[in-house]
Amino acid sequence: MKKDYFTTGEFAAICGVSKQTLFYYDQQGIFCPDHVGENGYRYYSYTQIETFTVISMLRDLGVHIKEIRRHMDNRSPQSLISLMESRKAEIDKKIKALQWSAKYIDKRIQTTREGIAAYAGIISVQEFPDRHMIVSEYHGPDDTAAVTTAIGTHLEHCSRLNLYSACPIGSMIPVSSITESGHSYSKFYTVVEKAIAPEEAVMEPAGSYLVIYDDHGYENIGLNCLKILKYAADHGYALGDDFFEDVILDDLSTEGYYNYLVRLSIRMIQLR
């Protein structure tokens, strides 16, 4: 046999697969040797390397052998274009999903590190960037069932907009609703990237915010709101109209609802 052919072992080594894979593809009729010698040995040509590379790629993308065989049995330029275009669409979809997953992971790492560094119960001033939010109004009671239903409705709204955020859902508490006996929620929001924010998105401007963290879940929300309001009054700070309630550490990093780390923040307007 002339040396411009490769044995099964040589071709397998070049393509980075096992000989068994080549035998299997031959049996399935999707990739056969260029020549079979009188001794029954299979021989492959260098011109088959590109074909095998494409078949391997299709298999890695989850294309079933039967679909590949249908193409190989009825191969044509148009058939190849159709096959490649369908796979390209799937690849683009997977890339988009992976990019979102990467952003989600980055945001989770950032938020978790924030939680690790936080000092519970201490009021501080933090600088926040512009935040673009999808906001849902809420006028129901402050009980778990009603709030859960409203959050579900908010998620459905974001889904209809084809928006998926790496940030957990936050809540807004009007300063006007805060009393010694309780508080009320007025809105739920999801922070989204500026690049994908729809027209209905609301922008919370960058600026200085008074912030307090609490590691007892939602137990002390009202108390911490009052604590910040007193702090602002004592220091002569004018504040925005709403508190922002964000979960920083949840079930993925703490055990139990009552151990969540929750951040309360409110925009500082100016010094009085």
Please characterize this protein's 3D structure.
This protein has seven helices and eleven strands. 42% of the residues lie in helices and 25% in strands. It has helices at 8-15, 19-28, 48-60, 65-73, 77-117, 144-160, 221-235, and strands at 5-7, 35-36, 42-45, 124-128, 131-137, 170-174, 187-192, 202-204, 207-214, 237-249, 261-271. Strand 2 and strand 3 (42-45) form a beta hairpin. It folds into three domains: 5-75, Multidrug-efflux Transporter Regulator, Chain: A, Domain 2 (Orthogonal Bundle); 76-117; 120-271, Regulatory factor, effector binding domain (Multidrug-efflux Transporter 1 Regulator Bmrr, Chain A), CATH 3.20.80. It has 272 residues and is an alpha+beta fold. It starts with a strand and ends with a strand. The strands form two sheets. It has an eight-stranded antiparallel β-sheet with strand order 4-9-11-10-6-7-5-8.
Low-confidence spans: none
Helix percent reads 40-55%
DSSP helical segment count = 7
Assembly classification: single chain
Instruction: Compute the average pLDDT.
Output: 90
Number of domains: 3
- In whole angstroms, the N-to-C terminal distance is 93 Å
CATH class of the largest domain: Alpha Beta
Strand content: 15-25%
Task: Supply Rg.
Answer: 30 Å
The structure class reads alpha+beta
Protein name: MerR family transcriptional regulator
Organism: Candidatus Fimisoma avicola
InterPro entries: DNA-bd_dom_put_sf, MerR-type_HTH_dom, MerR_fam, Reg_factor_effector_dom_sf
Keywords: DNA-binding
